[in-house]
Every structure is written in structure tokens, then in C-alpha cells.
């Protein structure tokens, strides 16, 4: 099984969740595109030293949006040429949000639409996040990308309840039992 870890934005907890899933559920790890250092794969390796970590699909030295970084670094690649490694259990961590550029023409969600695997969407609660979360869910649904769960970092039950009632997808709070709850969802897929 291959699973995308996607987010509503950058810095919502995708890497930490990826590391937890790799460590607790025995998945391998692959970062589709890495912009800047420290590398997310280093964070995963530190948290989960036994995890098999594949070399990132593209590495950009500059911590910037890939469409900008590739020009500044004079790199030539096409989004759909990035190969996903072979693995029976693989976490594929994306960069930024769903519409973050992957190259000068394509976004993360464009890649997901071509290389169809289910996703776990990660969100955190802040003013405006309900809108960003629901827009992300709608975009995934429109492209027939299966959403396994929304992992939500929040202390606000109002946000969680609204998103749950509106989106009708499984929501798991980002807490110490996140992987235990996720494993129940994943068991039904194997």
C-alpha cells in the first residue's frame, strides 16, 4: 500500500505524522520533493531509525516553492517524471499544500491525480483553516482521490465538529493515539 501524506498548507505536521506512521505502523518513507535543509527525511530517520528511507524524488537546496527553486538552481525536471519507489508499505510525503507547485506547470494534486493512491490529509486549526480544509477536501473528491482520514491538530471542538458534519470523512485528532486510530482505518484496506 502506498499512501500520500498531504496537507492544507506547509507546516501543518505532515513530517511528524509521516514519522509516527513509519515508526508505529512499519511503513517506508519517501519525500516527493524536498526544498531546503534540514531534510524531512532526516527528521523521520531521527524519530524512526529503523525506517527504510528512500532518496527524495527531487532535492532543492533553496527553501522555496519548487517552481522558483528549480529556476534559481537551474534544475530541469518534469513533475510526472518523478518516480515513486517500489515498496509494499510506503508513505509518500508531499510538500506544502495540495496546490503547491511541483514544477513550473504542475502541482502536488496534479501528481496525485496521475499517480492515484489514497491520501491522509493533515490540517491544523487557525483562523481560516476551516475554509482551507474544506477546499482541500473538495479538490481531492473532485479528482477521485480517496481520503483515508483527516488528521486535525486542534483544541477547538467547534472546528472539528463543523468539518466533520460538512465533509463526512473520518477525522482523527492529532494526539498520542493518532496511529492507533489510523491503524483501524488501514486494516480495512489490506
**Gap from first CA to last CA:** 8 Å
Strand content: 15-25%
Total strand segments: 8
Largest sheet: 6 strands, parallel
Please, how many helices? 7
Shape: globular
Written account of the structure:
The protein is α/β, with parallel strands linked by helices and about 190 residues long. It is built from 7 helices and 8 strands, in the order βαββαβαβαβαβαβα. Strands 2-5-1-6-7-8 form a 6-stranded parallel β-sheet, with helices on both faces. A two-stranded parallel sheet has the order 3-4. Helix 6 links the parallel strand 7 and strand 8. Helix 1 runs parallel beside helix 2. The longest helix is centred in the C-terminal third of the chain and has 14 residues. The protein is globular and about 45 Å long.
Short description:
The chain has 190 residues and is α/β, with parallel strands linked by helices. Helix content is 36%, strand content 19%. It contains seven helices and eight strands; from the N terminus they run E-H-E-E-H-E-H-E-H-E-H-E-H-E-H.
What are the salient characteristics of this protein?
190 residues; alpha/beta; six-stranded parallel β-sheet; 36% helix; 19% strand; globular
Write the layout of secondary structure elements.
Elements: E1 2-7, H1 14-25, E2 28-31, E3 33-35, H2 40-47, E4 58-60, H3 66-72, E5 90-93, H4 108-114, E6 119-124, H5 129-142, E7 147-153, H6 157-167, E8 171-173, H7 178-187
Parallel strand pairs: 1-5, 1-6, 2-5, 3-4, 6-7, 7-8
Helix pairs in contact: 1-2, 5-6
Amino acid at each position: 500500500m502506498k499512501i500520500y501524506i498531504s496537507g492544507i498548507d506547509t507546516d501543518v505536521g505532515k513530517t511528524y505524522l509521516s514519522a509516527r506512521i513509519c515508526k508505529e505502523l512499519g511503513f517506508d518513507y519517501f519525500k516527493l520533493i524536498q526544498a531546503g535543509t534540514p531534510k524531512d527525511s532526516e527528521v523521520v530517520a531521527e524519530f524512526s531509525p529503523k525506517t527504510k528511507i528512500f532518496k527524495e524524488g527531487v532535492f532543492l537546496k533553496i527553501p522555496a516553492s519548487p517552481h522558483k527553486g528549480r529556476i534559481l538552481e537551474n534544475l530541469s525536471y518534469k513533475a510526472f517524471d518523478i518516480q515513486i519507489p517500489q515498496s509494499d508499505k510506503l508513505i509518500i510525503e508531499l510538500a506544502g499544500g495540495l496546490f503547491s507547485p511541483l514544477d513550473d506547470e504542475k502541482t502536488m494534486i496534479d501528481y496525485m491525480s496521475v499517480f492515484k493512491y489514497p491520501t491522509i490529509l493533515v490540517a491544523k486549526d487557525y483562523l481560516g483553516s476551516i475554509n482551507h480544509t474544506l477546499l482541500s477536501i473538495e479538490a481531492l473528491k473532485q479528482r477521485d482521490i480517496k481520503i483515508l482520514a483527516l488528521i486535525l491538530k486542534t483544541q477547538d471542538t467547534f472546528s472539528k465538529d463543523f468539518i466533520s458534519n460538512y465533509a463526512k470523512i473520518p477525522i482523527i485528532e492529532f494526539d498520542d493515539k493518532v496511529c492507533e486510530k489510523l491503524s483501524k482505518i488501514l486494516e480495512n484496506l489490506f
